[in-house]
Amino acid sequence: MRYLPLLALASAASMATGQAPPDTGGAYLMSARTMKAQLVGRDKVTRLLGEVEIVHGSTVLRGDSAWVSTLKRQAVVWGRVSVTDRDVRMTGRRACYYKELGKAVMHGDPAARDPQWTVSADSLAHFREASRSEAYGNVHIRDTSGLRQAWADFGQYWHQQGYGLLSGNCRLELREAGQDGARVITSRRMEVYRRGNMATASGDVRYLQDSLQASCGRATYYRDQGRLVLEEAPRAWQPDADLEARVMTVGFRGDTVRSLEAFDSVALRQFLPATGDTDLLRCDSLWAGFQDGKLAQARTAGNVWSLFHQADQGRRRGSNIIQSSQMEFYFNEGRLRRIHLPVESRGAFFGEEGP
Q1: What is the pLDDT of residue 246?
Q2: 38: domain range?
Q3: How far apart are alpha carbons 119 and 171 in whole angstroms?
Q4: Both 285 and 263 in a single domain?
């Protein structure tokens, strides 16, 4: 192996152009089976072949062949290429390194790995000073457990801070160990935080798990707490029910929905296919419990009123209107079966013939 420092070559090229020496942050150290330096115009170019290794500070480039430009302050490496910077490692078939910026760009099925995440894309870039990676086109990021993964058109990840930013057709899948089902969040923009296992989504957010779907302007997922907060005009629905509010919180037990809380201007609608009617509940706040993925009970508070229909053997009999400050609703297979009124309430029944 032969090592060649390029600090003197960089200084010579700078004097030849009449410019002050650039701040390159130190010299290259290079090794290869064969090396050849030649003058191309005003540029000093070094060509390397076989077991190439180029070291610049904490950055190490390896590959099968390379050339290094003193004037352009660039290095290009081909073959089985890797770029390592501290605990980050990129692999691919071609890498361009910009010495002045401490920036490495990888092409050819590139992937980047650190102890927590793996990122792949059409092309990748890594910035040494910020310990930041950028991914362009068909971005796929997944954690080492394989339980969290995301897709997007563009992504950035700060390795030391454990923070990632995704944009463009974002999709996040969250799984529990040993379970097949996944919680899916899609949006225009996403932020992923390693600390606290937290993620936020904004812009046309959609959520899907089993039969429960939701939409909103902004969502925050707390994996360690088993909680998803929906804000900015949230709406949640199942095939036979629809819920709207100002803010919603979905609670999980493992990979199933355990509860749902809704606050401010809450409206719950249940659709009754047999009669074509819609039951309606309005209140200030609501807590709903689920069993086997279906609505089992709901407790309401504030200014509560409900409209629900009665049917006998599939034929509509009439409708009930109730107003109260508290109500409890109990469901069977997602259908309203019983209402409990713990405080004084007012109501009326309207039959087919009238009240």
Answers
A1: 96
A2: 1-79
A3: 14
A4: yes
